């Protein structure tokens, strides 16, 4: 099998299981973090943990905001969470898609880079970036092959002037679709609560290691409780009403 076909095959396979990488990275991050908290006490005064926590949270939320913008302005049956196969009824080329071809994957990268920052280990951040690159490069290749076959010259012209992963504002074009909060709430509610769960777990582990008591009073706990209540409300609304059946 030629390398091009092999890369596409691997990309389609990884696309189906693209939710697994974050779980692997999270498990590895927690293991490295726990080891660092037990044995790297000399590093505690280099950068305060609260500063690292806030920096990591800011990076993760930057990624989450990119996902919100992408999903909110995307056309129907595009930029979805489907896992069985690639789906694109039309090609998004305006708004955030006019400055980067894969904004959802960029958002994912930043969301998971945040926890890696909290660990305060340069080698782990580099390892994370390399793992993300190898994993998602195949997925992006397969996705672009699909779009190239479906949209032909129209896709090639857009791809020629739009960077794949690094944002460039040079050819920005305002979105032609109206922003839909319903679509955002329907598709991104999991990511909202997941961000706070991850950072609360990191903070709780540190508090327990240092003081042998669980974290029951930090501001993260209260924000986490709010995010869980918010998630339950949205989830219940989705299940028992038709409020999110259409977009606005």
Notes on the protein architecture:
By secondary structure, this protein is mainly alpha-helical. The protein has one domain (3-180): Four Helix Bundle (Hemerythrin (Met), subunit A), CATH 1.20.120. It has seven helices and no strands. It has helices at residues 3-16, 20-39, 49-73, 103-118, 122-161, 181-211, 219-240. Helix 1 packs across helix 5 (122-161), helix 3 (49-73) runs antiparallel to helix 4 (103-118) and helix 4 (103-118) packs antiparallel against helix 5 (122-161). Residues 42-46 have low confidence and may be disordered.
What's the layout of helices and strands?
Blueprint: H1 3-16, H2 20-39, H3 49-73, H4 103-118, H5 122-161, H6 181-211, H7 219-240
Helix pairs in contact: 1-5, 2-4, 2-5, 2-6, 3-4, 3-6, 4-5, 6-7
> Beta-strand level of the residues, as a percent range?
under 5%
From the 3D coordinates, which CATH architecture would you assign? Up-down Bundle
Total beta strands: 0
Number of domains: 1
Produce a short descriptive summary.
This protein is mostly helical.
Characteristics:
248 residues, 7 helices, Four Helix Bundle (Hemerythrin (Met), subunit A), mainly alpha
């Amino acid at each position: 099998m030629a390398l091009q076909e092999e890369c596409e095959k691997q990309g389609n396979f990884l696309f189906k299981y693209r939710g697994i990488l974050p779980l692997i990275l999270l498990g590895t991050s927690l293991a490295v973090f726990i080891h660092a908290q037990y044995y790297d006490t000399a590093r505690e005064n280099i950068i305060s943990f609260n500063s690292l926590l806030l920096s990591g949270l800011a990076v993760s939320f930057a990624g989450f905001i990119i996902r919100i913008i992408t999903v909110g302005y995307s056309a129907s049956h595009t930029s979805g969470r489907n896992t069985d196969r690639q789906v694109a009824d039309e090609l998004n080329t305006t708004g955030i898609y006019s400055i980067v071809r894969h904004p959802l994957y960029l958002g994912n990268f930043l969301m998971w880079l945040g926890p890696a920052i909290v660990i305060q280990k340069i080698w782990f951040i580099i390892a994370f970036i390399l793992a993300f690159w190898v994993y998602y490069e195949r997925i992006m290749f397969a996705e672009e092959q699909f779009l190239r076959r479906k949209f032909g010259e129209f896709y090639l012209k857009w791809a020629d002037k739009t960077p794949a992963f690094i944002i460039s504002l040079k050819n920005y074009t305002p979105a032609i679709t109206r922003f839909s909060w319903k679509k955002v709430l329907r598709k991104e509610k999991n990511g909202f609560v997941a961000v706070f769960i991850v950072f609360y777990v990191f903070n709780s582990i540190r508090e327990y290691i240092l003081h042998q008591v669980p974290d029951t009073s930090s501001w993260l706990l209260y924000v986490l409780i709010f995010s869980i209540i918010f998630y339950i409300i949205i989830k219940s609304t989705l299940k028992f009403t038709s409020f999110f059946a259409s977009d606005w």
